[in-house]
Write a structure and sequence with these properties.
By secondary structure, the protein is an alpha/beta fold. The chain has 17 helices and eleven strands. The protein has five domains: 42 residues; 69 residues, no CATH class; 43 residues; 232 residues, no CATH class; 39 residues, no CATH class. It is elongated. The N terminus and C terminus are likely disordered.
Amino acid sequence: MEHMETQLTKDPTNQELQKKILDIRKEIEIRMVGEIRGAQIRSGFPPKDRRGKHFNRPHRVSDERHERIRSQISSFRGRLSHYSRHKSRKLYLPAELNIMKMFALYEQQYGDGVSYDTYRQIFNGDFNISFGYPRTDTCAICDEFFAGLTNINKELDASPEDANLLRQKAEIVAHRELHQRKSETFYERKRNAKVKAKRLETMRAVAFDFQKELYCPSKTSNDVYYKRQLSDHSFNVHDLGSDYVDFYCYDETIGKKGSDAVASMLSKYVMEVVPETVKEIEFFCDSCCGQNKNYTIFRFFYFLVHCRNRFDKIKVMFPERGHSYMECDRDFSIVNTKSEVELPQEWFRVIREARKSLSPYAVYEMGLCDFKDFTGFLKLRHPFPNSTFFFSALDSGPGSTLSGFEKDLAETKQSLAETKQSLSETKQILSETKQSLSETKKAKYKDLQVLKKFCSPTTHQYYEQLPHDGCTPDALHEKSGGSDTD
C-alpha cells in the first residue's frame, strides 16, 4: 500500500485513475478475506480453489468426442515389444504411421471439428504407443504363428462360420500362448536369480554370450567393403547381481568360438573373478549347440562341482528359441562399433571405455595359454556317459541327484571315481596349450595386405606376420607376384 500511495504523489496526471485501481484492489482484498473467514467459521477449513471447475467452457471436448477419439486410436493394430512383454505394455504401430496421419484419418471418418492439439493430447495422455517395430532378430516360431493367424483371419472374413478355419485358429492361438509362456519362464527365473544373488553372498547369477563380431582394420574407405578383415571375438560375462561386466577378447589367430573357447573363458572367470565364498552359481545363456548346449560345457560344469569341488551347485538355464535377449546384449549395445581402429588391441580399449556410469567394463586379453582342450580331456575322463539327456542342474549336496539324466546314477558315480583318481593327469593335460596360432585363410591374408595401406606404418608389421595356411609372407608374395588383387 505504501508503494502505491507513493506512486500517486509522483504522477499527479493519473491520480484519479490510480485511485480507482487502488479502490478496486482494496475491495477484492476485503472480499477474499471475508470469504476465507466465512469458510473457516462454517467448516473450520479455508475454501477450496474452484478455478477450472466451472462448466461454462464452450470449447470443452465432450465425453462423446473423447470416447470417439479413443475408439479410433484403439482400432489401429500394433505389436507388443518382442522381448519385454511384462516389463512394458507399450504398443508399436507401423513405422509409416504418425499422429498427423492418424488425425487425418479421424477427420476423414468423422469430421466433427476436433483440433489436432486435442487429438494429440488424448493420444499421448491416454495411450502408450510408439511408432516402428523394435525388432531386429525376431523369433521364427512367433513369426510363423503371426503369418498363420493373418492368413486364417483373411479367410474367415470371407467365411466366418467355417468350422475348420475356426479350429485351426484356436490351435494356433493355443500353441502361440504355450510358446510365449515358455519364453517368459526363462526371464522369470532370471529375475528371481538376480534377486537371490543380490541377497546372498554365497550365490551368483551370471549371463554370458558372444557378442557381435568386430573387424580390423575398421576404416571408412570404400575398399573395406570389398575385402576380408581380421575378426575380433569378444565374450561377455555379466554378473546379474552386481552389474559387473567382464569381456574376454581375442582375435581369430588366437582362438575360435567353439565349446572349448567358452569352457576356457568360463574357467578363467570362475577361478579369477568369482570369490571362493560363492558355492552356488546359475548361468543363463542361449541355446547355441556349438558353443553352450553341448557335452563339453555340461561335462565342464560337472567337473567344477564333482571333481574340483569348486561349487556345491551349478544350474544352467536356456531360453526358448528366439527369446534370448539378455543383459549381455545391452552391454554391447553401448560399444561404439563404428570406431576407426587398426589393431585388435584398439578394440579392447573401445570396449573398456564404453560404459561411463557404474563400473567400467573389465577387459581381459586372451592369449594362447588361456585356451584349453576341454573337449579332449573331458571326453577322455567323462564324468557321465554319452546319452541323450535334458540338462537342468548339477548339485553336490547330500542325497542330491542329477536331474534329467536317463542313465543310472551308479554308472555316473563309477565314472566320477575314475575321474578323481586321475586328477594329477588332469592338471597335466589342461596345462597343455595350442602350439601354434590359428591360421587365416590365404585369400583373407592377401586382402589384409591391401587394407594395411590405410593404416599407420607401425601396424604394417602386425598384418605381415599373420599366419596364413602355412605359407610365409615372402612365399605368398612370390606366388601372387606382388599383386594386391584377390
